[in-house]
Each structure stands twice: as C-alpha cells, then as structure tokens.
C-alpha cells in the first residue's frame, strides 16, 4: 500500500503537498483537547496546529517513519495496521554492515568492538503477556495481522513526535477523516504550559511506553512485572530546556534519571574548566554514582537539547538493587567506568576536547560521520570523485568543512540518530530502514521541495538539478550521503588510497576518544 | 593515544620476504649457471617484473573505476609501492645486475631507476606534506578555491582599512597591500611551513604602540588576515607540489611501459 | 585565529572533475603509445637495430645492422653455423664435443643440443670477447671446481698404450751421460715455439748409436723361394742393393741370407715383409691399408676450406634458385620435415654468401696448422704409395707348412729390427714415440720448464724407467698445486677445448 502512495507521488507530485491549514484562533479553543487553555497559550500554539483532512484509505502515518506531529480525530474513523514484524525480533542489520565493511572503517570497528545489542529499540512497541502488541503512540493493542479502529476523540502519534521514535504502526483513514494535527513545537508548549495536557500525555506514556522503555534498559530487564507496574505509577516525568543544568557537581543527590529523549552532557570540573566526559542519550541513565557512593553529585549533567527524563526516587533504585542483584553490579560498573573517565579526562584533557567539540558541533548526532585525517590526507580528492562516480557524477560532499585538530569534518551527512530531515518530508522520500545506519533519499519519490535542505542544521543536504526519468522534466532533487547503499563500504572510505577517510559513529564516546589520535 | 593508521608492517614484511626470496634465488641460480636474461630464470624474473609493473600501472585505473570489486584503493596503493620496488629489484635481477650495453638497455635501466626513485620521492612527499600542513597550519582549503579565498581576503582587508587613520592606511599601503596582492608560492614551505611569517608580521608589532586604542583591534584583524593569507600561500605551494609530482612520476612510467612493450615485442619477434 | 568561512559547497564540475586533472595521465599514455608506435614502425620498416640490446662484438661488426643474418624470426636458433660452419661439419655441435671426449656413440646419441649462444652470447658491446666462455657452462655437465678434476686418464692407467717400441730410459740416459751430451734435450728437441717437443726421429737421434756403421747380418735358415731377392724385384732401389744380399744355398735348400750394410727402413726387408704378410694375412693388410687411406681422408677433410675468392654471384644466384625450387616442390609435407630443414639451411647459407660475400669459416685451418697438415698428408700419401708398390699382387692359398715357413722367413729377416721394434704378426707396429700424450688437454712446456728448470721436477723417476710404456707423468694433484683459484689459471678453457680441433664430426 505504501507502494501505491509512492507511485502516486511520482505521477502527481503536486497533489502530495499537504492539504492542512491552520484553524481560526477562536475555533481552536473549542476543540476538546485544547479546552480550558489560556488565550496566550492558544496564540503560541496556533501556527503549529493544523486542520488535516484525509480521504478514505489515505495513509496518515506510515509505520517506521518519523513524524513531527500528533493527531486528534475530530470526525471519522482510522484504521491501524501492523505490517512489519516487531522490531524486537529483528537482527539489527547495521551490525552486519559493520562486519562487511571490515575493521578498516571506523564505523565498522566501533560497532564490532562494542559487540552491541543495539541500545535502543527502533520502534516503540512492547509485547504484552497475552501476545498482543501494545503500540506506544497509538491507543490500541494489536495482534499481528489484525487491525484496530480508532474513533473520534482519540489522540495518536504524540509519543513518536515528542521522543522521535519511529511510528509504531501504519494509520490510515477508514472513512473521510478530519483531524487536528498538533506539531512538535505545539506539543512542547502544551507540555510546559498545560498541566492537564501534560498529565494526559504523561499518563498515556506511563501506561503505553514506560514499560517498553524500562524493559529496554538493561538494568530493568530482570525485574518482575509487578515492580515495573509499581514504578509506572511512582516515577516522575521531567523535561529540560536546551542548556539547562539538570544536576550540578557537588549538589546533594537523591534521584536517578533515565533519558527518554534528547542528549545529556556529563561533565567534570577540573580547576576552572568543565571537562566533557561523555554524553547520554535515549536509553542511558545517570545518578547512580551519587546514590551508590552516598555522596553529592560527582558530575554535573546538563541538557544539550530538549531533554525528556524519567526520574526515579532513591528508594526505588534501592528497591531495584535489592530485587535484582545483577542490576547492582551493572550500576557499579557504570559508576566505576564514569569515574575512570573523569580521571582520564583530568589527566588528558584532549579527550574531553573531542567530546566538547562533538557536543558543540552537533556531531554527537552522527551515527556515521566522515572524518578525514589531514595528517595523512594528500588532498587528492579521490574520495569526492569516488562519491561523484557512485552518485551519477554529482558528489554528495566536498572536502571542505570544519577542522578540528588534524581532523577535517567534510560536508557529508552525519546519519543522525534522530534525523530531523525526515520530519516534514511531504512524500516520505527520506527513509531509514529500521535497524540500519543510513538515512537515504529516494530520488523517485523526492519532489525537491527543499524542506530537508532547510532543516539540516549542518547544510549537508543540497538540492541539485535533476532530470526526472518518469516525469521527463527537470526538477530539483535533494541529495545527501547515503553511505553508498548497496556497496560493501562507502566509496569515499574504500577509495582513499591513504586510509585517511574514516567513518565514525559518535554513539559510543569512550570508543571514539580512544580511536581519534591527536597529531601535534 | 593509539595512532589509528596502522603502519602496515605486514606489507613491509611481505615485501622483505619476497625480495629476499628473489635475491636468494638469483644468487643460488647464478652460482649454478651463467645468468642469461633471455632464458630460464632470467626470463622468469623479466616476466615477473613486467607483470608486477603491469599491475602497478593499473593503479590509476583502479582509482577511476569504482565498479571494480578488487580491493580498496589503500591496498592497491600498498601494492603499487611495494610491488613497484619489487619490480625494480626483479629488473635488476633480470639483467643480472650488469650495466646494459645497448642504448635500449640504457634507456630501460635509466627509466626504471627514475620511476622507482621518483616513486619513493612521492611516498616521502605524501607523508611529509600532510604532516606539515596538519601540524603547522590552521587553515585548510581546496587548492582550486585558494585564488577565490585570496580575493575575498583582499577585499575584506581593503574594507577593513577603509576609513582608518592615515598612519594605518600608510602602513597598509606599504606593508600589507603588496603582501596580499597575489599568490606567492615558495618551495621554502616544504622545509618550514611557517617560513617568513615572523618577518612579515614583525611590522605589526612595531606599529602597535603608535596606534590609538580604537585602532588596535583593526590592526589585529589585519594581522590575522595577513596570517591567513600566508597560510593559504603555504597550502597552495604544498598542495601544488603534490599535484606537480605526478608529472615527475607518471610520464616516465608510461615511457618505460612503452619501451618495455617494445622490448618484449622484439624478444618475441626473435624467438 | 579565524577560520576560512565555509558555506554550502558549490559542487561544481570545475572542482570535482577539473579540466586538466587527467592531463598528466592522458599525455603520458599518449607519449608511451607514440614511443611504442615509433619504435615498432622503425622496426618493421627496416631499422631493426632499434631493438638491439647492445652492440655486437667487433668481429661481428659487418652484420651489426642485419639482425636477420643471425636471428631467424620465429625460430629459436641463432644461425651461427651459416658463417662458422658453412660446410656443415657440425663439429661445433655438442654431439661432436661428446664424441671427441668419449668416442662413445651411445653417449653421442644422448647428447643434447646446445645453442651456440648459450656459451657465446653477443650484444655485450664492441670490446666483448665472445671466446670467453663462462666456466659454469662446463659445470652444467662436468664437475664444478678444479678440486674435483678427475685424474688424467693416462696417469690413472699407469702406462702408455701402443708405444710400439722397446725403450729403456735408464740405459739411454747413462749412454747420453757417457757421451757428454745434453741430458733429455739430446733426444727431446723443443719445437720452434718451445711449447712442446719434436717427434723423435731415428735418423736424427737413434742413429748416433744404432745402425751407424756398415754391418753384415746373417739370418736364420729360411725356406726356399719364400724371399724375393732384389734382382727379381727390378725396382730402381733393388738394383742398387743387389750386391749386398746373397743367399747361402746348400743344394736347393736355402740355409740363410747374408745381408751387408743393413739400414733403417731397409727397402728390401720392408718389401719382403709386406709381401710375406700379404700372403700370410691378406685381411690384416687390407685393414692396415684402410687405416692409411682414412688418415689421408681425414687430413684432406681438415685441409678443405672454402674457395678463397668465393663463388661468383651468378653461381650463387643459380644455387639459390635451385634450392628454392626444390623447397617449393617439397611443400609442407610433414613426413619430409628433416629434408625441408636441410634445404632451408642450405638456402640460408647461400643467402648469407650473397649478402656478405665469400665465407671464411672457422673450419679452415690456421696457416701454421695447415703447413703441418700438408706435411702429414704428404707422409701419409707416400706411405700408401709404398704400400701399394710393395704389397701389390694376389694372395695365394697356403698350406699350414707354407704359412709357417713364411712367418719364419719374416722373423729371420727382421731380426735386426726386433731389437727395438714390436711386431704385430709379421708386420712392425707403427711407432709414436714422444708425440704429445694428452688427448684432451693442451699443455705448454715453456712456462713450466722456465719455472722448474729440471724435467725430473715433474717427470720424476724417469732416470729409473726401463720400459717404454712407463708414464712418469705427474698426476692432476701436481697440476692443482699451482693451478687453483687465486694462484694460477684454473679455468677449463685454459687447458681444454670444447670444440674438437682436428677430429671431424660425424666420424668419417
């Protein structure tokens, strides 16, 4: 069915421009979900709340896609369908990629060395005891191969939009449907300013996703269901603004945090300077050290972006350690590792510099960042030409970018963990197959609207003139690095005669700092 | 910190073993029978050298043909280097390490030596220059864009000086404008990537005390612009050397290949 | 420090694929191709010397620019023999070498072909000597170092073969000393070049003591009518000596013959001797004649050489056309490949003569050798003439008694000869006294005598020798005491020659 959509897109690209328009301000207050909101809040959210109409059979959300909006059904019914196997049973194909690429690519090596089961689950859904599947962002439970129906007054898609999980199931209109489309900025504003809405969303999160989230954290893997159910009620859900300090080094500590979304920077103080030790992401946790050591916070934690956290009390953590002895060992290991990192960072501040650089430049988002070692690069530009040859004569990057020490970061796509470019792609041309690293743009579906080009914070997507083979006319086409889909390894890495071009994942910080040498 | 780039001792060891085997075979066989280039083991070494040389010649082709599934460019380069050395050795063995007696022989010998030595020089340059630029220069630029960058810098500095005090303008006219005028490539950068910089920037320090406080930042900006220009000069010079090196190595290789083919042709013609 | 501001890159063709990027490569390929094309064009249009790996040795300078003279395109052989063996003696072939060394036809049959160029490689420059052959070539079949040199065959055997004479060095040396003559050198006269020694001659040396005064001999009794008296012979020499020979008769029985003034090589004795041996052993005599005849053939062969002025161009042209016609007639019949090959060689040989003029093959002996050969030829011819003169006539069938009588008569008349000579049936064996004894090596006495002064330094114990077949040659160890690497020359070619000098191949 998704295929039909794409064929449609190819044949009538203009019809896919989103039909939504904003509501008049006075009508906004009358929508049930916004009832009781103050005038100021309504004004703030107004540009981000849209009137969306769907015809019978039209797809509203596609499974596996990234979405930047929640939907509230005003009239009509939608149908939910699970097309793909639950991601939990999938072998992450990125790991296979890493092996194929061989240890000479850093991306490959990083994943190999980490020996990882991937830390996050690509799609937010959990297996309930009955064998039904609980969908995190859609208020329905599904058995595989069956369908569920949502009626008017239901909200769906908000968890996907807030935490940037891919959508867990395909939602399509089962009749003519009118929806209120609430985009992420509006959701954020509502989270902050409308306690009722926040409570509503949080409660939904507690019920639908928290168990999934907790289970996905290794620490809670061995817990009993009752304990988790108890936690679901007890935990506090907190958010932080970009740059906001979550906990300060030396302050008294009595809480344990799990990261729901966004990035948290961990830093240690050395003299007057703050040394970045590592950063935490979805699925990571912090605060254990203070509780275990019975000390004030040994590190300071700050939000790098809008951060969503789950806050556990000290008592809950101690209860957990009592119930699951294994968890205690894991916590100690993490603590010791972080303390070691602190020692290493203070001894050798360069590591920390790399981290700070990664935080400052946004490289922490990168799952596969192209780096060029300028101390060995002979500036032959074979990487660029290799890229051009692989992509029909137009390179997807050039050997320019910012330079950090001996490393050049060219303008090649970082393959972000949460690709902002995907959000707002009107045709769904930008995809990341579940469990893989590469974010790619399908040239047959792309209509060159330029949304992604504007959205990419690093200017790594470029619109190029393209002669469309089906439409038989020249259009613009968004292009970016796709890690040379179908090749053994990216051409730039493979064709560098001096081994200077490498691909690095910024996900595992410890590994990263140990692999990037400094050439003075 | 562990240096990521392996030193590739495996290639070196493999080369050393192969070279030792070749030499040992030569010494053993030449003690046993008189060494004849045109027959027996002498011919085998000639064929070996030409085959390795042929594969070496495919290296630039490999760099262009991405569809080839055979190995990474890095592996090809390693083979290009070590294989080339081995081929040169095989040429020596093929000739029995005797001086050639004919014009043809001399040309073959001289070209082989030239290609080998220029290749080694290339290896050195390609290790030396990147280390120089990565360590000593802040600015990194594409060779093709350097003239444009320079023009921008020039424009920027002109704009910076416009409307400043007479002293600064005179200083600019005397010291900075000529220096900013155009690319000034120099081989000196190959030895010292910051050569001349202190001399060029000296006048700035001398002028500083005579300027008012409001003009100082402007002077500092000017100084940083000039520094940038000097770095671009260095980048331009060094990257150019890397590009021009091709001319030293590639045409003689092609000539050598032509001569080698003719050498083989003549050999086949008379057998 | 401020960094250059980088915007969104202009992904222009000018940067990724700039126009001049492939210039070095394309130009190089063009240059290489042009070079190859020019060389091949020059080569195929006749300037073959562009392919030469080096200048030819100076004797080959005339063919410097004529590659095809030596190199047959498409065939592996280098055609040396067209000039150096124009009459096809094949003595330069390895088979000839093996025959010379072993005289063993089986080994000869097994001998592999070795190209001339394997030892004599050219193109090493004008100054290069092609005669200098790498030792290691010999070692590919023989031993590897002088230390492994086998003992000289003669020394190993311990005696000479077929010396053909009774000779006692001890007694002769005593006599020479008594007469105050120069020891050794009285008999062993050095040759003009002082490399070796002249053959010992009865007339110059032995005659000092032997048969030097007129002597009368009386034989044992002989059977009647067995010996032919000079008067019955009627040759020019027979009348002159008729008076010296008388039969002593008692009735019809001949008691003995009295011979006055017997000389060395006495014609009457030889005449009767050969006559008797023809009657007693006709086949043996025929074999002896055959040996003489073949020696003449052999010498003639060695003396044969190309016509000095060469053949006239017209004759050569006719020859060439004739062979070409034959070749054409032969076609490509695989069964007659050998014949075809022979004709091709002959054709090439004619072509070489047309191209280069008359051939001076190396088979022609050097002038000094030629003189010697001519002398030997004259001797051999005289011997054959003698043979035919003396031993002509029918061979009667004899009873055993008659046969014994003839043998006794032969013994009777040769009694004075038997003091020194050895007999083979009734005939005297030929003598090869003091001829060079080493078959396979050259030996120069001069430097050895200059260094050692005394003959006995090498030929130790010769003063005690009582038999002619005593060798008294020092063994190879004696040679090796000086001839070893680092001291004196020890390479094979210093003593030995690969190519047989005098012996024809295949053997006649």
Secondary-structure map with pairings?
The complex is a heterotrimer of chains A (520), B (271) and C (508).
Chain A: H1 2-11, E1 21-22, H2 25-28, H3 39-45, E2 49-54, E3 59-61, E4 69-75, E5 78-81, H4 93-101, H5 106-114, E6 125-127, E7 133-135, E8 141-142, E9 147-150, E10 155-156, H6 158-163, E11 170-173, E12 177-183, H7 184-193, H8 195-216, H9 225-234, E13 236-240, E14 245-247, E15 255-261, E16 264-270, E17 273-280, E18 285-286, H10 288-293, E19 300-303, E20 307-313, H11 314-323, H12 325-347, H13 349-361, E21 369-373, H14 382-390, E22 401-404, E23 407-410, E24 430-431, E25 440-441, H15 451-455, E26 462-468, E27 473-479, H16 491-494, E28 501-504, H17 509-515
Antiparallel strand pairs in A: 1-2, 2-12, 3-11, 4-10, 4-12, 5-9, 5-11, 6-7, 7-8, 13-20, 14-19, 15-18, 15-20, 16-17, 16-19, 21-23, 21-28, 22-23, 24-25, 26-27
Chain B: H1 9-32, H2 40-64, H3 73-94, H4 103-136, H5 146-161, H6 166-180, H7 197-207, H8 216-269
Helix pairs in contact in B: 1-3, 2-3, 2-8, 3-4, 4-8, 5-6, 5-8, 6-8
Chain C: H1 13-16, H2 23-44, H3 67-70, H4 81-84, H5 94-102, H6 105-110, H7 116-119, H8 135-139, H9 153-157, H10 169-178, E1 216-218, H11 230-233, H12 236-241, E2 245-250, E3 253-260, H13 267-280, H14 282-303, H15 313-330, H16 337-356, H17 367-390, H18 400-413, E4 423-424, E5 427-428, H19 445-452, H20 476-480, H21 492-495
Antiparallel strand pairs in C: 1-3, 2-3, 4-5
Order of helices and strands of chain C: HHHHHHHHHHEHHEEHHHHHHEEHHH
Mean pLDDT of chain C: 79
Number of helices of chain C: 21
Distance separating the two termini of chain A: 56 Å
Helical residues, percent of chain A = 25-40%
Whole-Å distance between the termini of chain C? 101 Å
Radius of gyration of chain C: 35 Å
Fraction of residues in β-strands of chain C: under 5%
Structural class of chain C: mainly alpha
Largest interface: B-C, 42 and 43 residues
Mean pLDDT score of chain A: 73
Largest sheet, strands/sense/barrel of chain C: 3 strands, antiparallel
Shape, per Cα inertia axes of chain A: globular
Estimate the global geometry of chain C from the Cα principal axes: elongated
Largest pleated sheet of chain A: 5 strands, antiparallel
Q: Which strand order do you get reading across the main beta sheet of chain A?
A: 1-2-12-4-10
Kindly report the spatial arrangement of strands forming the biggest sheet of chain C.
1-3-2
| Unreliable sequence segments of chain A | 1-19, 85-134
Share in helix of chain C: 40-55%
The number of helices of chain A is 17
What structural category characterises the helix and strand content of chain A? alpha+beta
């Amino acid at each position: 069915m998704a295929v039909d959509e794409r064929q449609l897109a190819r044949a009538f690209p203009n019809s896919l421009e989103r039909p939504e328009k904003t509501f008049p301000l006075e009508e906004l207050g009358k929508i049930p979900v916004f009832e009781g909101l103050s005038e100021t809040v309504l004004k703030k959210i107004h540009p981000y709340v849209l009137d969306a109409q769907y015809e019978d059979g039209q797809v509203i959300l596609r499974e596996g896609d990234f979405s930047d909006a929640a939907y509230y059904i005003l009239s009509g019914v939608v149908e939910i369908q699970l097309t793909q196997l639950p991601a939990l049973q999938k072998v992450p194909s990125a790991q296979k990629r890493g092996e194929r690429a061989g240890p000479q690519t850093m991306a490959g090596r990083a994943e190999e060395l980490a020996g990882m089961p991937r830390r996050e689950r690509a799609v937010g859904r959990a297996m309930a005891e009955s064998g039904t599947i609980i969908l995190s962002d859609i208020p329905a439970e599904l058995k595989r191969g069956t369908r569920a129906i949502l009626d008017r007054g239901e909200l769906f898609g908000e968890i996907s939009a807030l935490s940037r999980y891919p959508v867990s199931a395909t939602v399509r209109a089962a009749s003519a449907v009118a929806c209120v489309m609430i985009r992420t900025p509006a959701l954020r504003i509502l989270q902050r300013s409308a306690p009722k809405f926040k409570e509503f969303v949080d409660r939904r999160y507690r019920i639908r996703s928290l168990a999934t989230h907790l289970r996905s954290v290794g620490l809670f893997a061995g817990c009993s269901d009752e304990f988790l159910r108890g936690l679901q009620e007890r935990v506090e859900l907190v958010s932080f603004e970009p740059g906001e300090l979550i906990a300060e080094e030396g302050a008294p500590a009595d809480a344990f945090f799990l990261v729901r979304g966004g990035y948290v920077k961990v830093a240690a103080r050395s003299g007057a300077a703050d040394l970045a030790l590592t950063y935490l992401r979805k699925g990571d946790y912090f605060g254990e050290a203070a509780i275990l050591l019975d000390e004030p916070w040994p590190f300071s934690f700050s939000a790098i972006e809008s951060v969503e956290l789950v806050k556990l009390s000290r008592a809950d953590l101690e209860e957990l350690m009592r119930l699951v002895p294994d968890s205690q060992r894991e916590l100690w290991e993490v603590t010791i590792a972080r303390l070691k990192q602190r020692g290493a960072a203070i001894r050798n501040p360069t590591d920390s510099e790399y981290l700070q650089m990664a935080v400052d430049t946004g490289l922490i988002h990168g799952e596969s960042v192209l780096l060029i070692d300028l101390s060995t690069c002979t500036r032959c530009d074979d990487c660029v030409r290799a890229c051009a040859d692989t992509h029909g004569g137009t390179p997807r990057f050039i050997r320019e970018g910012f330079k950090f020490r001996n490393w050049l970061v060219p303008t090649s796509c970082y393959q972000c963990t949460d690709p902002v470019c995907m959000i707002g792609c009107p045709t769904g041309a930008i995809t990341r197959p579940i469990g893989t690293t590469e974010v790619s743009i399908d040239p047959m579906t792309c209509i060159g609207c330029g949304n992604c080009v504007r959205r990419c914070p690093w200017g790594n997507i470029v619109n190029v003139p393209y002669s469309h083979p089906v439409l038989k006319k020249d259009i613009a086409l968004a292009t970016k690095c796709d890690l040379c889909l179908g090749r053994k390894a990216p051409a730039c890495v493979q064709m560098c005669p001096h081994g200077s071009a490498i691909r690095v994942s910024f996900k595992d910080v410890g590994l990263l700092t140990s692999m990037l040498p400094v050439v003075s | 910190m562990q240096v990521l780039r392996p030193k590739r001792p495996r290639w070196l060891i493999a080369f050393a073993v192969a070279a030792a085997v070749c030499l040992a075979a030569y010494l053993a066989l030449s003690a046993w029978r008189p060494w004849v280039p045109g027959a027996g083991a002498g011919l085998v070494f000639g064929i070996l050298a030409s085959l390795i040389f042929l594969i070496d010649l495919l290296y630039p082709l490999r760099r262009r043909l991405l569809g080839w599934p055979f190995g990474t460019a890095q592996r090809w380069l390693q083979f290009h280097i070590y294989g080339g050395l081995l081929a040169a050795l095989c040429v020596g063995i093929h000739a029995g390490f005797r001086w050639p007696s004919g014009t043809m022989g001399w040309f073959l010998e001289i070209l082989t030596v030239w290609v080998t030595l220029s290749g080694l020089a290339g290896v050195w340059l390609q290790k030396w220059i990147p280390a120089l630029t990565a360590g000593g220069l802040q600015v990194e630029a594409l060779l093709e864009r350097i003239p444009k960058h320079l023009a921008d810098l020039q424009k920027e500095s002109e704009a910076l000086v416009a409307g400043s005090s007479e002293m600064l303008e005179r200083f600019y006219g005397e010291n900075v404008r000529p220096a900013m005028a155009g690319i000034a490539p120099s081989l000196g950068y190959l030895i010292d990537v910051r050569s001349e910089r202190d001399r060029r920037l000296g006048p700035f320090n001398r002028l500083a005390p005579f300027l008012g406080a409001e003009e100082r930042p402007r002077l500092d900006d000017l100084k940083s612009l000039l520094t940038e220009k000097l770095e671009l000069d260095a980048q331009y010079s060094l990257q150019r050397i890397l590009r021009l090196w091709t001319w030293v190595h590639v045409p003689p290789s092609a000539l050598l290949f032509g001569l080698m083919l003719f050498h083989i042709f003549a050999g086949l013609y008379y057998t | 420090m401020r960094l250059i501001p980088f915007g969104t890159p202009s992904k222009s063709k000018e940067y990724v694929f700039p126009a001049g990027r492939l210039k070095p490569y394309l130009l190089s390929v063009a240059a290489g191709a042009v070079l190859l094309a020019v060389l091949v064009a020059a080569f195929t249009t006749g300037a073959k010397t562009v392919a030469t790996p080096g200048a030819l040795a100076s004797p080959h300078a005339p063919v410097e620019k004529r590659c095809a003279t030596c190199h047959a395109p498409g065939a592996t052989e280098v055609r040396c023999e067209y000039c150096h063996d124009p009459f096809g003696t094949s003595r330069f072939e390895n088979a000839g070498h093996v025959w010379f060394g072993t005289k063993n036809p089986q080994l000869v049959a097994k001998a592999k072909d070795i190209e001339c160029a394997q030892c004599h490689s050219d193109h090493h420059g004008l100054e290069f000597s092609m005669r200098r052959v790498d030792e290691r070539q010999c070692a590919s079949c023989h031993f590897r170092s002088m230390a492994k040199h086998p003992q000289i065959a003669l020394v190993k055997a311990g005696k000479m073969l077929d010396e053909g004479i009774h000779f006692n060095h001890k007694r002769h040396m005593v006599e020479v000393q008594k007469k105050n003559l120069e020891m050794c050198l009285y008999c062993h006269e050095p040759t003009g070049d002082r490399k070796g020694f002249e053959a010992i001659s009865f007339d110059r040396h032995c005659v000092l003591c032997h048969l030097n005064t007129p002597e009368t001999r009386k034989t044992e009794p002989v059977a009647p009518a067995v010996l032919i008296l000079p008067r019955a012979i009627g040759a020019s020499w027979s009348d002159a000596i008729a008076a010296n020979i008388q039969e002593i008769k008692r009735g019809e029985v001949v008691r003995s013959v009295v011979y006055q003034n017997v000389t060395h090589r006495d014609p009457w004795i030889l005449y009767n001797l050969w006559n008797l041996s023809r009657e007693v052993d006709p086949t043996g005599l025929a074999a002896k004649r055959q040996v003489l005849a073949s020696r003449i053939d052999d010498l003639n062969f060695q003396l044969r050489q190309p016509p000095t002025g060469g053949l006239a161009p017209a004759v050569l042209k006719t020859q060439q056309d004739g062979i070409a016609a034959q070749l054409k007639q032969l076609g490509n019949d695989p069964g007659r490949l050998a014949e075809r090959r022979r004709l091709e060689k002959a054709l090439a040989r004619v072509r070489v003569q047309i191209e280069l003029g008359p051939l001076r093959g190396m088979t022609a002996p050097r002038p000094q050798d030629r003189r010697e050969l001519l002398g030997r030829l004259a001797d051999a011819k005289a011997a054959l003439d003698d043979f035919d003169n003396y031993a002509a006539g029918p061979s009667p069938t004899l009873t055993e008694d008659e046969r014994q009588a003839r043998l006794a008569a032969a013994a009777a008349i040769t009694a004075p000869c038997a003091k020194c000579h050895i007999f083979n049936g009734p005939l005297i064996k030929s003598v090869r006294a003091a001829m060079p004894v080493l078959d396979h090596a050259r030996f120069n006495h001069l430097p050895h005598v200059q260094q050692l002064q005394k003959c006995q330094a090498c030929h130790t114990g010769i003063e005690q020798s009582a038999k002619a077949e005593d060798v008294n040659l020092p063994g190879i160890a004696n040679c090796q005491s000086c001839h070893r690497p680092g001291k004196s020359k020890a390479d094979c070619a210093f003593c030995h020659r690969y190519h047989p000098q005098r012996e024809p191949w295949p053997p006649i």
